[in-house]
Amino acid sequence: MFTNDIYIRGKYATYLKYLSQKTEKNDRHEVVAGVFERMIDVYMTGAIVGVLYGLRKEEENTSSVTAKLFADVLVREQDNLKNIFTIVMLIDNSCGLTDDEKIERAFKNPDTPENMKIFNSYVRGGIEWLYEAFTTDATTKDEYIAKIYSVVNDFLEEHNIYL
Amino acid sequence: MLIKQITLKNFRQYKNKQVVKFSCDKEKNVTVILGVNTSGKTTLIQAFNWCLYGKTTFKTRELINTETFQKMQMFSQEEVYVEIVLYHENTEYIIKRTQIVSKEDSNKPKCSKPSLEVAYKEENGETETIAEINVQNTVEKILPEALSDYFFFDGEHISEINNKGNVASAVRGLMGLDTISETVKHFNPIRTNSVIGKLKKELDIAKDDEGRKLILQLDNAKNNLQKLKDRLANTRKEIDFFENKKEYLNKKISSNSETKNRQEEKLRVEKDIKFLEKNQKFTEQTIVKDFTNGAFKFFALPLYEKVNAVIENASQEGVGIPKMHSDSIDFILRRGKCICGADLTLNQGAVNNIKFEQSLLPPQHIGTSIREFKKDCNRFSQEVSEYYETIKKDYIQIREDANNLYEKRDRYDELSKLLQGNIDVGKFEKDLVNTQKMLKEKKDLELKISIDIGSLSNQVETFESKLASLVIVNEKNERLKKYITYAESIFDYFNTSYINAEKKVKEDLLSSIKDLFKTMYHGSRTVEIDNDYKITLKISDGNGTYTNDTSPGLDTVKNFAFIAGIVDLARKKISSDDSSEESIEFSSEPYPIVMDAPFSNTDETHIENISKVLPSIAEQVILIVMNKDWEYAKHTMLDKVANLYQIEKKSEINSSILPATTKEAF
Question: pLDDT tens digit string along B482-522?
Fold first, then answer.
């Protein structure tokens, strides 16, 4: 699990790159929001956000843009990725599983193409949410940075969380 | 020189006073003194030599007449003298050499050192004595001793006359060439003791060089001094310029102090802006880093509870039958009969339950994983407890920095607007610093140049004073150089004249001797003369010209020709007034020929020939001859004879000279 390269394609690849600072560092001329340090960070957060808001998005290839997450990075983030995957497997209600079945899916035999498909669909949904959250009413670097605080703040308010 | 008279007193065999007057007549210029052998002919010649040069060739040293000495009283004195009266260069000289003889011993006379007195007659007839210190010199001037052999000679020596080593110098002297030769020697630049040599020695050439060097050095020093002075003037102008500039800049700066402050503030603000902009990048990076680090954990916050709920809701959350193993279940399922005895093949529900139970047992047991997962979730949740605060802090910092930056930019713009069109005081200050630096440099330079000028001025003064002392030497050198040039001209002139004159003398002499020889000699020999004035006789026949041995008689004839040639030449010189501008008129005083027994070894024909020639070539001829020789001579000579004397031999120690009266004499 998470030992091979992962490819994100189409507009989600564009979003992913847009949110990642890594892209900015690779190509100084590309104007991006760059609110996450790396693409893997967007990928992981995207999965959480996707499953939180129940946002599943299918793969799409409207553009040829591809973002590649390299296996070595994935292996380094293996523990976090597995935990995130477990969370997704436990929260996902799309298959009508009982809690026991969810546990079975999450812990006993998680590494199936089916499960990965579900996981990545949440990733795509989450990336789209993040993209919209950070780019709505923001076009400049200052505004993107300011969005970090407002997104965090809004999220806490939305979920009535007090830290 | 012509001999007027000789007086002998007590001189050898001539007892008492004997006076012989010689003819100085131009026509009858011969004086003959006749005498027999040992009568005192040679003594007469010796008397001339003793008087003039203090020398004799007698075997005994005593000069006093023996009879006189014998007759002398004991302790009495007697004088011996020879006095010659002669004409030289139109002046009559009286030359007298005296020896005082004392008789202190009856056998041996005591002789004093002979003394020489020379007097001359002045035009008014008065006699003037020449100082003792100059007497011998005067004689030398009249007739140099070296030449005396050619004028006072006896027959025994006549054959050697041309073979003497100093013939050349004798001829030169006689012909007056020695004077010019002395002059040439006196000026000859090769000799260090010559006029030119001495002048050159006196020349201080080193000082000349030193002077030239000094002049160069002085010129250089003066040039350099002028350059330094120009440079000093320039430097002072530059100092004035920088002083003015400094004053101007100070005024500008003080009158623009507000502007200066603003400019300084602007610089500070500019610096702040740069810092804030850099800081902004850093805080942006910080917020991104902080946001990223906890992002998925933060967004998962609402999910942890849900996850827990799922795990909580699951009935068999991690609790399996104790001690039961999955293999036990597999055994029960395989046999199809439960431990309660029920048939499992007919009850699928029971089988599922059993399978579920199996799932809770090892190795398929997931309780541990779940527990770990729950722990992780708790950790995640705790890790983001400060998430919001961190992000908020980062954001506030960003906002503050942004505001700060905004304010600074605002201030910067404001200051820029205020300073627009104003003078850049900073530039003035920078300029002032440079100006002060330049001013210091120039003042240092001024000091250095002033010191250099001081030392160079001293140098110039030293050079000038040195030069002043050299000028005196230089003037002397200039004078000496002029003298040397004159002296060199004189040398060249005399040297050339000498060479020409000698050449002419030799030619004339040869021609004269040839003529005379031809007159005197009745053979077929001819005469040659070499560089040393030595005569060789040559015989010419059909086979060529050669030299052969000569006889003493032939030598006598040859030498007569030689002497006669010299005298003839001297006469010609004096009689011809051949003085062109380019040649020197050599003085050549006429000289007498005083001969003792000239015709020894000569045959009668030659005697006749010689007698014929001699009076015509010499100004004055004094012959002391034996009566037998006179026999042959008198035929050709008698008409030239003015005075004829006879020596009367009274005894071996007593002779007198008296005018001849005998028939034979004439």
Answer: 998 999 898 999 888 888 888 888 888 888 888 888 877 77
| pLDDT (tens digit per residue) in A81-139 | 999 999 999 999 988 888 888 888 998 888 899 999 999 999 999 999 999 999 999 88
Could you tell me whether strands B30-35 and B641-651 are parallel, antiparallel, or unpaired per DSSP bridges?
parallel
> Of chain B residues 524-563, which have a CB less than 8 A from chain A?
none
**Three-class SS of residue B343?**
strand
Q: Do A44 and B296 touch (CB under 8 A)?
A: yes
A49–B contact, CB cutoff 8 A: yes
Of B572, B581, B419, the closest CA to residue B493 belongs to: B581
Token digits of residue A39: 């693409």
The tokens for B284 are 């942006």
CA B433 to chain A, closest CA, distance in angstroms equals 44
Evaluated on CA atoms B38, B107, B100, B78, the torsion sign reads negative
Distances (CA, A) of B424 to A91, B13, B243, B272, B428: 70, 139, 21, 21, 7
Q: Chain B window 345-384: which residues touch A at a Cβ cutoff of 8 Å?
A: 359, 364, 366, 369-370, 373, 376-377, 380, 384
Q: Give the number of beta-carbon pairs within 8 Å between A and B.
A: 119
Predicted TM-score (pTM) of this structure:
0.45
Whether A28 and chain B come into contact, CB under 8 Å, resolves to: no
Report, in angstroms and rounded to the nearest whole number, the Rg of chain B calculated over CA atoms. Answer: 74
d(CA B359, CA B333): 14
Q: B305 and chain A: CB distance < 8 Å anywhere?
A: no
Write b or e for each residue in B143-176: b if 16 or more Cβ atoms lie within 10 A of its Cβ, otherwise e. Answer: beeebbebbbbbbebbbebbeeeebbbbbbbbbb
